[in-house]
Amino acid sequence: MAPPPPSSLPLTQRLMHLAQTLQFGWFIGHLTLIFCTLRYCLSYITLNFYSRWAKFSYRTAFIAAAATYGIVVYKAFRARSRSASRAQSSPLALAGDENVQYLAMALIWLFSRQVPLALLPFTVYSVFHVATYTRSNLIPTITPAQQSAATGSSPGGRPAAKPSQLGDSIGKFIKEYYDTSMMLVAGLEIFLWFRLLLSAITFTKGSWILLAIYTAFVRARYSQSSFVQGAVGHFTARGDALVANQSTPPAVRQAWQTLKGLVRQAADATDISRYIGGGAQPGVKKAQ
User: Fold this and answer.
1) Among 159, 20, 68, 147, residue whose Cα is nearest residue 4
2) Taking Cα atoms as reference points, which of 9, 20, 59 lies closest to residue 39?
3) At what angle do helices 207-224 and 165-201 cross, to 10 degrees?
4) What pTM was estimated for this model as a whole?
């Protein structure tokens, strides 16, 4: 992230300087997504799924998601253009970018029927992005760190800055709950796949197309995220343990094996790394 404005400027100018950056628009987008999700959850709890406010909150949340990921993709594309890296700007290479994938899914959810579960992975990401931006940019802009000569000097010879207690608390929250939250996101994304599969089985309008697109998305996430790989391994182990029970009918066991075979075939067919040359290395990098 870009550094906050100089502390020597008045507060009004520091806030204006911050508000004029794309990064601030990215932050507002994530904040809007969180508030819209909370508003939609209120409508969901009260069983007003298709009320005017519910529809507005749901669609606005995905507009905000598309805007935030669009900003990240734009900045990455501009950086590639400046470095004249044409190889990394090919369509297949762009399809392998996780931010492009989340941008595409945000647009698909925006124009598809309402699937409330689809909001949750985006919201979890937004919570951490808002927390990170608040700690790194917003707090230092509003209350610049006070220089303290009594606490010693930095390696560069400058007086050390007193850390913000609120910033430290946010940093501890991010460090403590990051891995758990990413596992939660991975579990939600896989559970959402089964939710779409159920809709396809019951022949809900447009469900098979949506399932095919989302299957490709989950496959890409599997190749890029160790959290998704861990969640898939966990779900597979649980399924194997359930069907291994002696009381499980043979038909159920056969259906489970058939489902795993179909998933493997779909995974092979949608492996982007086969088409862009070279396998993607799984990591823990989160979408922006």
Assistant:
1) 20
2) 59
3) 140
4) 0.83
Coil/strand/helix, residue 149 = strand
* Among 267, 242, 274, 270, CA closest to 256: 242
- Report phi then psi at 114, rounded to 5: -70, 130
Segments of the chain assigned E as strands: 147-153, 159-161
Paired residues of 225 in beta bridges? 283
Q: Cα(23)–Cα(160) distance, rounded to whole angstroms?
A: 27
**Greater model confidence, 89 or 268:** 268
List all residues 6 or more positions away from 190 whose beta carbon is below 8 Å from its beta carbon.
218, 228, 231, 232, 235
Q: What is the mean pLDDT of residues 137-163?
A: 63
Structure tokens at 69: 């990921």
Residue bearing tokens 């990401």 = 125
Paired strand residues for 283: 225
Give the dihedral sign, CA 196/202/204/207. positive
Residues 28, 109: Cα–Cα separation, whole Å: 20
What is the CB neighbour count within 10 angstroms for residue 143?
13
Whose tokens are 């987008």? That residue is 29
* Least confident among 24-28, 139-143, 279-283: 279-283
* 277, pLDDT greater than 70: no
User: Alpha-carbon torsion 218, 222, 228, 234, what sign?
Assistant: positive
Q: Which of 119-123, 190-194, 279-283 has the lowest mean pLDDT?
A: 279-283
Max CA separation in the chain (angstroms)? 75
